Amino acid sequence: MSSLNIATRALNTNLAALQVIGHNIANVNTPGYSRQTVVLSSAGYQFTGGGYFGKGVEMTTVERAHNEYLTREARQTGSVAAADAARLARLEQLETVFPTGEKGLGTALNDMLNAWTDLSSAPGNLTARTVVIARADEFASRLRDSAGQLDLMRNTTQQQVKSVTEDINRIAQDLAKVNQRIIETAGTAHTPNDLYDQRDQLLRQLSDKVQISTVPGDAGSVNVFVAGSQPLVLGAQAAKLAAQTDPMDSSRITINFVQGGVSTALADGSLGGGELAGVVRFLNDDLAAAANQLGRIALATANLVNQQHALGLDLKGNPGQNFFVPPAAAKGLASPANGGTGQVSAVVSDPQALIASDYELRVEAGGFSIVRLSDGNTTSVGALPAEVDGLSFQVDAAGAVPGDRFRIRPFEAAARNLQVAIDAPEQLAVASPVMVTPGTGNSGSLSVEKLYAVDNSANLTDPVTITFNADGSFSATGLGPGNPPPDNAGPPPSYNFKPGQAIVLNGWSLTLRGNPTAGDSFSIGASPSNAVAQSAGNASGMLALRDLATFDGVPLSDGYVSLFSDLGTRVQGAQFAADFSAGVATAAEQARSNVAGVNLDEEAARLLQFQQAYQASAKFLQIAQSTFDSLLQTVGR
Amino acid sequence: MSFRIATANQFDRTIDQLATRQYDLAKQQERISTGKRVMKASDDPVAATLAESARNRMTRVQADLRALDASRTSLQQAESGLAESGELIQRVRDLLVSAGNPSFADAEREDVARQLEGLREQLLAVANRTDNNDRTLFGGLGGAPTPFVDLYGPSGTGVQFEGQRGQPAAGNGTLPQSLDGDAIWMRIPQGNGSFTLSLPTSNTGGVNTSLGQVTDATALTGDDYRVDFADVGGVIQYTITNTTTGTPVAGHAGVPYEAGKTVAFDGLSFEMNGQPAAGDRIDLAPATGTTDIFSVVQGAIDALRYQGAGESALRTQALGRALTEVDAGHDRVLLARGRAGEWLNRADSMDLLMNNRSTDLELEESRLVDLDMVKGISDFKNKELALNAGLQAYATVQRMSLFDYIK
Fewest CB within 10 angstroms: A214, A292, B188, B356, which? Predict the structure, then answer.
């Protein structure tokens, strides 16, 4: 009987092994599938007088090829790669908003400023005037268009964050269910391999969305933590993530961890990896930075052009009106936790000192502190209004109490709302309000290159006479307050003269060329009313804006360069990061898969191996049967 | 280290790699077809930044070139205006010379005066010319749209300069668009530049003088003088008095008059001609300022039309002075014309320089962002080869399976 037993058991076992191989072959392309093998063992022995006789083969269990460390590594590296890839994909999209060359904002900006060159040749030419307005309109509309595209990207990215969060919650639920089923199977000697595979696959999917850490739980379950220590899945219980718009800044999204009705805000940096981390970083860092830089270009350009335009005179001899619709003051958004009812805002006071950042104003016991959010730089002031980074922070309504916080985003709406205010060509203020008259006795070796107003000084049109001394320096009479002190004490007190370099006094800028002769004099004063048609002084002033150090020392005309070079560097950095992390993830996944995955050639070989074993077992059964049959025949006869 | 390979993973990786190669190839193809190596900033942020700056500078150079062209056109018009003005002044001079003809009768002089009036009008028209954009060519630093205004009023008649005195200077890349008309036509030295000699209309004799000259600039006093003629016993004597100090000039008191004689004192000298009558006078005054070409011509016209006892002497005196002043005016026009010509030359060289600069910038931009075609195509071939090899290897290796051998 034992032979028949041995044969039957061998047949069953080998068939089971073939079944497992078939299962492997069937799942060769199933993601997350770990190949399974049948663990065989000898079925023991029987002692007889003739010695120890083996009882054949026995199947211990079916186990899966699995290496916990490689799996975890593949998960972690995959998580980082998913974050980098998600951020890169969005950044590449963002980059298309800021093209270089003729389609770029830089060309529009330069075209707008360069158009004043033609006005300086022909101040009265209405066509040249119309071209200046058209170019400015083009610039403003391109800024608005870019801002609109950024808004669109912000919306889609916020949608993406929300849908990723929903994915995470769904996967967490699934994980909790799988955990439950695994717990239910506990107590048997065998492991439910396919359930484990399913869970590993869920963990893998989850870590592509957000970086997780896992800790083995009771009865084979696994506990999943996000953002370092928040328990997303505990056994059969799943918590939730929620994407919430920042109450103080609607463009930002904060991820909250929600458990039992209590929600905890997670810091952006704590998310680690996964698509969620990549997209949130894009939304809160990259997109915000690009939007602020775009806004800064709009705000600085609008303010500088408006300032210079107001210094000129239009064809009717009136001071220039606003060239662009003046950007509105940036209202501070009060924190929901504020105890007081105060309101604050910020307006541009120095367009050249602006830094592309949002600000937080905190009310303190003895004053205020203003925090630049891009780098955390804090300025404490005793009272408002106070000037920080070219912005004047002011109180609109009193009533703030210590501990109150306000978010101020000066650049947020600037590009979106930029509009040209001038509509008629004759309103362009091309003429200079000041005029220079050389003295009648001048030697003639020194002549005037240009004169224009640079500053809205109260003394701008005061009559001033500058007279050159024998040593080439000049003395000035009639100067108002606030001018730089003379370079030389004298007597007479005098300023050094550099031919071709602007002399800036009383709010005007005068450029003289040539060699001074003692006694040469120039009188500066208000421009006569009949001179506006011939004067193009303010056009020179506009053109000088091109070289004005505006964006962290970068000239206005190159302002766009710093925007897209910053963005290009970001994209390039993200590309490198994505390439690198994808390489690492691929290697880790390969290592994991090489252990756990199915190799068809191997399965084919095993197939043959167990087929032969099965056939041999069948043969053995036949032999056992035939020996038994012969015995029966012998006995029966 | 086990050497097993998971079949599915192997497929996945091969497919990924083929996709990457295909992407590379497509990207390279795009580069070749656009001719650009840097298509967006992230391709090469540094090159993109430098190229954008170069492009900004280039557009500025092109704007400056347009301004230069405008300046050149204006300067050319100003230059030709000056040439015309020079010719007009020359014609004035010819007329003044012919008007001195003693055989001319009043009618002929009136004819010359009329012609001079016409020339004066034309001179004024030239000086008020504007360029294509209605900017005054001779307005100096700006001022009124009509810089030269012929004014009649209680404070005096004559041409006033209502432009803005002063010559605009050439900048680093710019040229002035207008000339200082004030310096050209409105600042002609009076007389010989140091003092003037004039005859009062009360003179009845025929005395007149040369324009006079400075013989010793250090001895000049800058005082007013007068020469009085008196009949002393049938002999006409002259006496020179320094009217500023009220003292007679030593050696020139009561000296018998001799026509054609040069008197010299206090660093100056002049010649007296013609026959004075007793009571005639010559006034000598230091030049107080400058005159303008229009007043000079007007003075000559007035002198030609003057009718009176000593009209001949007065005319000779006035025409002589006008001639000198017209010559001085002509010199100033020539000077301005030379300057305009020099600027026009400079415009040519600046034009060349700026065009070169524009070309350089264009080259720089191209060097930064354009694709080196030879390298681009060779890269393309390489990538094509890599993709082909990948496909080949895929086809060969992935086809192999043990199942093919199990029969």
Answer: B356
